Amino acid sequence: MSTNFLPNYITTLLVALTCVLSSTAMFAGGGGDASSEIELIWPGVIMSGFDYEIGVRLPAEQGEKLINGKLQINVNGSTQTIDIERFRPSSTLGIRKGDLFKGWGYYGEEEFYEGKFEIYFDDPQIVNIKIGEASFEKPIHPVPIWLSILPPLIAILMAMILKEVISSLFMGMFVGVAVTSAYSDGFMGVLSSPLTVLDTYIMYEVFDLERAQILVFSFLIGATICLVAKSAGMRAMINTLAKYAKNAKSTQLTTALMGVAVYFDDYTNCLITGNTMRRIGDNMKVSREKMAYIVNVTSSPIVILTIITTWVGFLITCIDDGTNGIEAIDETGYSILISSLSYMFYPIIAIIFLFVIILSGRDFGPMYHAEVKARTGIDESKTDEDEEEDEQDDMAPIPGVKPKLFNAAIPIGTMVLGIIIGMLYTGWDAELWNDPSIGTVSKLSTIIGQSNSYVALLWACLASTGIAILMYIGQGIMTLAEAIGAAFTGQRLFYDALVMLVMAWALSGLVADMHTAEYISGLLLQMNLSYTVFPAIVFLLCAVIAFSTGSSWGVMALLHPLATPAMWTLCIDAGLSHEESMEMVYNVVACVFAGAICGENASPLADTMILSTMSSKCNHIEHVRTMAPYTFTAGIIACVLGVLPAGFGVPFYITLPISGLAVYAFIRFVGKKADDVPVPVE
Q: In the prediction, which pLDDT does 340 show?
């Protein structure tokens, strides 16, 4: 029996249950229909110590209760006046993201009014609400906030113990939902927890527009790659790259340089680089774990260091959220981002670490053992799916087709160029472009930063797939039916990893509902710290939260509004000048970004970790296990020799060279060469 029978069985079961539940969700209801009664909408999860929004829904015929678009309510004896808006359902069944509740709901076809008010929940209480003649009473039992650490903790520990990710993610979500349901609905809530995981959290993420775009984008990438492989274009590209990848070291170096070249988007980087270089790595006896590590490190750390990427708009927004309340800071978010680059110690050290590892030929820890096995032909990184793929040869070129480089270069080039054109088109601002006071680089960065990168990715991948099909049919390489079949074969190869990705998103959604990140960050930010060590604390805090949640962007969005004002206050209280305080702000801004990337690079729940696994066809747990020591080592060097000295005023042109030398010295004395191990004679 295949060792992956259990994961595949679980995957199939989860998908089947999700389909069944989604087809019957309209009868279960999530928000209720538009009846003649006033309705209150309560949060599905209520943690202690937080304000929560409670929704009020009035049928359209009760509009006479409104006075100038406002409604008067009485909450626990206190009178409030809230704003009310008219709502017209666009469909009777669906998921309303970012609204008053999460999940499926049947809304009916009638219009209604909707508003919300806030209540702070700490201890158990009975909430009494009066709206006109209607009266509501609901007992609330807030969940202790310390329990919020259980879902990610259990998911990570189980993944490490069981060496299987999908069931571990599901178990983490089950425990979290069971805990929250036990407080809100008692024993029956615990029994229904598996269903809540599926029909609320998993379905919620699948029907999120941006998430769905990523899934479709990944499927289209898979279709293009399979088409290119079947046309022998991939073989031609491999033959071309093989001229530069003549041994294990040059193969790793070529992979790293390709990852750096595809710098503008982390997802695109992972999928293109891994899928292109994987077979060359196999031929040159480079372990799948090592290939996945190279792909991962050249994704987020590279993107965060460049200023013309799909991340720029989000990064600037995060910075603005942190500085908006500080009147003394008059710099733009973009200007602060540029100034913070010299303090991005972890991404820089991670890249240096990668190239020293490659050029020295040395490895340590689990990665060394993986490389030894690959060199000696005892490579355990291949999964059962790889063996089945080798037997069936789904990706093998069509017999008799001559390898031609343009059959790979044109589709892949179309994808890369299409992404860039799509970002320029969706973010184009004629007024900005015609402004002579702004430099060209700044214009391009701003335009790309405000673009719709997900739409650009979809357009580019669709164009790439379409052009590939037309090219190969035109050359007589394959018929239309064969081309469509190859495209679906490529999509199928990504199926398991994308299920894992959806599960990781769902766990991240639950963790957000339980305010795990706020709990962890609050513990440290409340400490009375010196401004000199505060950046290092922020770096470590962001790394811990990103590792626990798998989301670097979530950490960035959360910590900037907390860390930046705190840093500014510490600097002012210490009597620093405006210029000195701004340098510390640049430092802490960089630490939020760098710490989040560091934690994500080691987290088994992270998007890029899963995509690196997927494109390199590596066992996910082995990828995490082999990469984590490298990430933690680079993170410690960055924090101790970069972030901490910078807090005391040591300039980056001193700390960065010292950190680089420390990386070289560590790898030189700790690392060992896998090439030195003799290959056994058969």
A: 92
